[in-house]
Amino acid sequence: MKLHQMAGSIALISSLLLLTACKDEPLAEAARPALVVQPGAGIASASVYSGEARALEEPQLSFRIGGKIAKRFVDVGTPVKAGQALAQLDSSDVNLQAQSSQAALASAQSDLALAKSELERYKALVDKQVVSRSLYETRLSAYQAAAARVKQARAAANVSANQETYAVLRAPKNGVIAQRLAEAGQVVGAGQTVFVLATDGEREISISVSEQFVSQFQPGRKMQVELWAAPGKIFPATLREISPSADPLARTFAAKVSFRAEGVKAEVGQSARVYVQDENDSKMSLPLSAIYQLNGKPAVWVLQKLSPPKDKAMSDEEKKDFDVQAKREQQVHLVPVQIGPYGENSVPVLSGVSETDWVVIAGVHLLREGQTVRAVDNNNREVAAAFNAIAANKNTAN
Predict the structure, then answer these.
(1) Per-residue b/e over 267-306, b at no fewer than 16 CB within 10 Å?
(2) Pick from 40, 97, 89: nearest CA to 63
(3) What is the pLDDT of residue 122?
(4) Per residue in 303-313, pLDDT tens?
(5) Of 290, 325, 286, 287, whose CA–CA distance to 307 is shortest?
(6) DSSP bridge partners of 67
(7) Residue 396's pLDDT band (boundaries 50, 70, 90)?
(8) With bands split at pLDDT 50, 70 and 90, how would you rate the model's confidence at 196?
(9) Higher-confidence position of 91 and 392
(10) In the 3-class helix/strand/coil scheme, how is 290-307 assigned residue by residue?
């Protein structure tokens, strides 16, 4: 019994000492995670259109002569280089035609040689007045006709030679085969599409616009593109063109949006979203969950760089530890904002924050002024590096 009493006394004394120590040195509060976004994109209140990535140039490739396809060298999805052979026609007839043209050229050249020799002989006779002038002019005319036939035969031979090269279909530029519309053994006509080539270079997004909104889509309008393969990365875009007539079945207008995916390779056929901001809306918007009521007026929690305590001098070791902490953690500060009409999921921000600010969008009623947080974005990635870079730029500007 005494042992139990002694153990209880020791535990009581330890608890009192622990409480005394806590009063002297309060435990540091761990930084809580905070979900943040930047209001600059203005995507939350924008209209969204689904589309797919297409090459800016997609030429339809065809043979310049008709014939039967003997060989096909590529398939859909095959990367090709400029000048690479894609398909070949049966060239039997083309070769025979080329031989016929060469034979006709040789015959015309022989006739020309004979006409030339006769012309020279008659010229000598007319000078001696052995033959009449009219006979000489007849031979001269025959020579000129033979020369013209040689020129005609040579042009026909050149055409036949070109047609031999036309029997091989080659890629005009670097790219990838997007469609194959003919197969080996098929007879195709001149100009009939065999392949569709998606050329390398700039990409665009193809979308469909309904009749009720087509009047708002004018070439040159600014938009934003997000590739499904790179979620969270927004690229500036421009409406390049829109069809003047609607699709007869879908009753929608085809539109093409050009953009440059810096640092991201946009493959042909990839899915994408096109964000179209209403021209009357604010350029900035935030989710409804970001709005906090401060004395009945809207406000938001904005990240600020972690500041050292003012009422305590820190040693060199403590300063080093604080610098490490400041690279990963931030403080929140409540900022009044002016907002527009509430939307279904978002609200436009008219003033109070800038496009580069990071704003907390979850658990805003659980925060307090100056609280330390560790910010992450919608993809659960820390935003400390980007935040510190922006903060450094602001300090440099100031």
Answers:
(1) ebebebbbbbbeeebbebbbbeebbbeeeeebbbbbbbeb
(2) 89
(3) 82
(4) 887 766 666 66
(5) 325
(6) 188
(7) very low
(8) very high
(9) 91
(10) HCEEECCEEEEEEEEECC
pTM of the full structure = 0.52
CB of 361 closer than 8 Å to CB of 349: no
Residue 327, pLDDT score: 61
Beginning with the edge strand found earlier in the chain, give each strand of the sheet holding 346-351 in spatial order.
285-287, 346-351, 338-339
Token pair listed for 100: 């016929």
* Integer Cα distance of 376 and 39 in angstroms: 15
CA torsion 29-34-40-43 (nearest 10°) is -170
Q: Residues 96, 232: contact at Cβ < 8 Å? A: no
- The DSSP call for residue 254 is E
CA 242 to chain centre: 18
Which residue, among 296, 279, 283, has the nearest Cα to 354 in the 3D structure? Answer: 283
- Residue for token digits 């600010």? 357
Decide: residue 126, CB within 10 A, 0-12 exposed, 13-18 middle, 19+ buried: middle
Mean pLDDT value across the chain: 80
C-beta of residue 292 within 8 angstroms of C-beta of residue 283? no
Output DSSP code: residue 227: E
List Cα–Cα distances, 207 to 48, 216, 256, 269, 362, in angstroms. Answer: 10, 14, 6, 12, 33
Taking the CA of residue 179 as centre, how many other CA atoms within 13 Å lie in the half-sphere pointing to its CB? 12
- Expressed in percent and rounded to 5, the helix, strand and coil fractions of the chain are 30, 30, 35
Total residue count of the chain as it appears in this document? 398
User: Is the predicted pLDDT of residue 157 greater than 80, yes or no?
Assistant: yes
Mean pLDDT within 181-205:
90
pLDDT at residue 381 in the model: 74
Is 340 within 8 Å of 281 (Cβ atoms)?
Answer: yes
**Six-digit token string for 359:** 């704003």
Per-residue pLDDT, 213: 85
